[in-house]
Write a structure and sequence with these properties.
Its EC number is 2.3.1.286. The protein has about 230 residues and is of the alpha/beta class. Helix content is about 35%, strand content about 20%.
Length: about 230
């Protein structure tokens, strides 16, 4: 039995129709990230930010888990390996595929956060700038996602699990956004990159598999499980 720490990025969900930062003509290209993905942007125009994430939430709700998500869920549920699943993604496709314990380092699109009292709750499909916090009553509700300039969630747990893993696998990530990009450097075991094309830091990994996530991930899981 191995302890396997897996990090998934936007490339894991891209084939489900959820765009990445780098997609041409995608949702992200229509906005200045300083306006919709920073605390300052939210302070300036909360309605714009809520509208942006309402669109992303609708996109997520209409999407379905793909073969990469279901293969990783199968690995967690049906193999003898000890799996730690970490994701940079804010969608819930891992959970909908059946993964029982997902560490969301950048938060969750389907959750809401009060910027005043730090309460969290399930987000409705549409959030409004005037929505009061159900706990403190202030109009300070925002998506429970990590914006640029904020500290990712669960970092102590993530670092501990990656260091302790026999195998660290990065799937569908550009390896350009820290601290996620630096996890391979703290891994003590073997390291593997699975990506559509080699990332800018592919040379840091011990091995790599190149191709669409819906093909490469199920093939890798089948090898591990013998199924």
């Amino acid at each position: 039995m191995m302890h396997i720490a897996i990090l998934t990025g936007a490339g894991t969900s891209a084939e489900s129709g959820l765009g990445t930062f780098r997609d041409k003509d995608g949702l992200w290209t229509q906005y200045d990230l300083n306006d919709v993905a920073t605390p300052d942007g939210f302070a300036r125009d909360p309605a714009l930010v809520q509208g942006f994430y309402n669109a992303r939430r609708a996109n997520c709700i209409s999407a379905a888990p793909n073969a990469a998500h279901t293969a990783l869920a199968r690995l967690e549920l049906q193999s003898d390996h000890d799996i730690t699943l970490i994701t940079q993604n804010i969608d819930d496709l891992h959970e909908r595929a059946g993964s029982p314990d997902v560490i969301h380092m950048h938060g969750e699109l389907m959750r809401a956060l009060c910027a005043r009292c730090d309460a969290r709750w399930d987000a409705p499909p549409v959030m409004d700038a005037d929505d009061p916090c159900p706990h403190c009553g202030h109009n300070a509700t925002r998506p429970d996602v990590v914006w640029f300039g904020e500290i990712p969630y669960h970092m102590d747990r993530i670092l501990e699990q990656v260091r302790a893993a026999d195998l660290f696998v990065a799937i569908g990530t550009s390896a350009e956004v820290y601290p996620a990009a630096g996890l391979v450097e703290i891994a003590q075991g073997e390291t593997l990159e699975i990506n559509l094309e080699p990332s800018t830091r592919a040379h840091v990994f011990d091995s790599r598999r190149i191709g669409p996530a819906t093909q490469t991930v199920p093939a890798w899981v089948a090898e591990l499980t013998g199924a």
